[in-house]
Amino acid sequence: MVNYKSSLKLLKQLDWKLIAIVLTIFGFGLVILSSATHLNTNSTKALFQLGKQCAAFGLGAMVIGIILLFDYTLIGKHYKELYLISLILLAVVLIPGIGAERGGARSWLNLGPLDLQTSEIVKLTFILSYAKIVESKRDRLRTIKDIMPLIIYALPFLGLLLAQPDLGTALVFMCIIAAMVFTAGLDGKIIKRAIIIVVALMPIMYMLMADHQKQRIEAFLHPEDITLKGNYQVMQSLIAIGSGGVTGKGLYQGSQNQEDFLPVQDSDFIFAVVGEELGVIGMVFLIGLYIAFIFRLIYAAQQARDFYGTLIVVGVLGMFGYQIIQNIGMTVAVIPVTGVTLPFVSYGGSSMLTSMANLGLVMNVYMRRKKINFG
In what order do the strands lie in the sheet with 99-102? Predict the structure, then answer.
């Protein structure tokens, strides 16, 4: 049962600094998106996309409101049900006739006029579920035997994602898992062994990759070869950022962006638009906002009233941290290209809703960081 009186009082405990940072990132993103969608030359299409982005943000705010009504500790008691629901959502897209293929991965449900990427929903349910399992192992992760239950619990998720195949999302889940397990007190010796094992298994992992995934690795290792798929996008991205200089060419003035030399400029490579049109100053400003955002998440994790709450925030932190580093990194050619969006900036309803819902989890934990007398 939702206690509405308690919920209204809890609203006073929200992290308004975090909210202000997110609103600033979103507002900045809308300005950049208006250029990436060519508002200056194709206003009808651009206004539709901008409207859709605002609608997704507004819907996400409503989702946050719903999430805040329920105490996260009560939700955590249903972690087994969340675990089962998560696996069903990941498995259903693999069924022929139900799942739809986009970008080489069968990760979508075709719902008529809408496509739903179920793994975006599962990010939320997985964090809530996995945090409960990790909580029970706190400070008892000294041997491989200790950590094995956590590995076994996570393997079905990773297996289903790789079966789609969606390596990018699988990496997001790995970062969520790593962040939580590390926070729970994973012994340093296990970390060292894990790194050695991963390095040793890289050749095998490469052999098991899909062809398009291998092409991305080859392209990253040979950036000078623009015949390799992915290198053209990165090359255009580097040209855009390099031509922007310190102050940029000005909003709506970037030739790489405006003349569509830069691919997927409204989503995967939107950071390059920032570099070309607002220069180093614009990029540093946006990165500064993300750093402030990350620090507020760390603060929320530290302020949680219990370890379960801390793990939830850390899981969200792992998700956002990976997406920010991956998106910016691939734009400047220091990380292989994957289809990862820039949180609160890239165009996309599913991405925005997922980001907002996970932000709601953080706010849920933070607003309940201390007991309040409601009498």
Answer: 99-102, 105-111, 114-117
Place of tokens 């962040």: 179
Q: List the Cα angle 326/328/331 in 5-degree steps.
A: 105
Half-sphere exposure of 346 (CA within 13 A, CB side): 25
Residue 100's region, left for phi above 0, alpha for psi from -120 to 50, else beta, is: beta
User: Which residues are CB-neighbours of 307 under 8 A, at least 6 positions away?
Assistant: 135, 138
pTM of this prediction? Answer: 0.89
**CA quadruple 321, 156, 79, 352: dihedral sign:** positive
Distance (Å, whole) CA 300 – CA 294: 10
| CA 161 – CA 91 distance, rounded (Å) | 9
Q: Which of helix, strand or coil describes residue 114? A: strand
Rounded Cα distance between 213 and 91, Å, is: 21
Adjacent-strand bridge partners of 117: 108
The mean pLDDT of the chain is 86
